[in-house]
Amino acid sequence: MAEQIIGTLADFGARDLAAAGGKGANLGELVRAGFPVPPGFVVTTAAYRLLLDQAGLGTELERLLAAPDSRRAGGVRGRAAEHQGPAGVNGARIRTVFAAAAVPAQLQDRIAAAYRDLGGGPVAVRSSATAEDLPGAAFAGQQDTFLDVEGEAALIRAVADCWASLWTDRAIAYRARNGIDPHEVAIAVVVQRMVPAAAAGVLFTANPVTGERSELVVEAAAGLGEAVVSGQVTPDSYVLDRGGRLLRFTPGRPESETDDGGRQRARAVPPEAGG
C-alpha cells in the first residue's frame, strides 16, 4: 500500500511517529482523546522522502553528509564550533541545496488541496521531526516553525523551509550530542489553523526544576505560545498539585505586547505593566 502523503491530525497517534513526527503524533493523540486542538493536517515524512527522490536531493544529501565540513577542518573553535554538525557536516550547504530544489508538482497540489479543505486563511506551519519529543531528547526549538502563513504559494514555501530546517546547524549538533544518526532522521510538517490567542503557555507534568512528579507547572503569557517557548517573554509561572490546587505563583514580565490576534509586537512593555 502506498504511504500516506497527507492526513488530518486525527489520522495519527502515538504509534505513527515515523510518519507524522513527534509533534504530529502527539497532536493526533490529543485529538483522539477529545482535547480541543486547532484543526489541521500533517504533511508526512513520505512527502519529505518524495522530495528527496524526485528532486534528486537524496544522492546529494548523502554526498554532503559524507563530506567533511571545511570550516571544521580548518580548525574552527569556540562558539562557532559548537554549532557544527556531527563529523563536520556542513548544514549551510545542505540547506542551500534544499532551497534550490523545486517541490514536485504532485506535492504542491496535495498540500494546496489540504489547505483549501482546511478553509484557507492564516495557518501555523510547524516542523515535526521523527527524532522529536522523545523521552531522552525533546528537540524543542531545533527545527523551524512559521506563523501567520497565508496563501497556497506561501504555505508551500513554508513547508519546504521546514524540511530544510531539519539541517540547521543547531539541529545537527543536537542530534550529534544525543547520538542520533543523521541518516535515519526525517521530518513531517504540521499545518494548523491560527488561533487568536488571548493567552498561551506550556504545561509540565512534572516540575522541571526540582523533578517533583507530584507537581504540575504551567508557564504562560499573553498572546501565542511561541513567545513563551522562544524566550521572548518571561512568563507567569504556576505550580499546582495534581488535584489542580495552586501551590505557588511567580508573576512574569511581558517584554513585548500582543495585538488582537495574539501576535507579539516588538515594543517593550514598561515594568509597571508586568505581572
From TrEMBL:
Transmembrane region(s): none
Swiss-Prot/TrEMBL keywords: ATP-binding, Kinase, Magnesium, Metal-binding, Nucleotide-binding, Pyruvate, Transferase
Reaction(s) catalysed by this chain's protein: pyruvate + ATP + H2O = phosphoenolpyruvate + AMP + phosphate + 2 H(+)
Residue ranges of every copy of the Pyruvate phosphate dikinase AMP/ATP-binding domain listed in the record: 19-243
Cofactor requirement: Mg(2+)
One MF term in the entry's GO annotations: pyruvate, water dikinase activity
One GO BP: gluconeogenesis
EC code(s) of this entry: 2.7.9.2
Pfam family membership, one: PPDK_N
Entries under InterPro entries matching the protein: ATP_grasp_subdomain_1, PEP_synth, PPDK_AMP/ATP-bd
Regions of compositional bias (Basic and acidic residues) in chain numbering: 254-263
Pathway assigned in UniProt: Carbohydrate biosynthesis; gluconeogenesis
Region (Disordered): 246-275
Biological function: Catalyzes the phosphorylation of pyruvate to phosphoenolpyruvate.
Family: Belongs to the PEP-utilizing enzyme family.
Name assigned to this protein: Phosphoenolpyruvate synthase
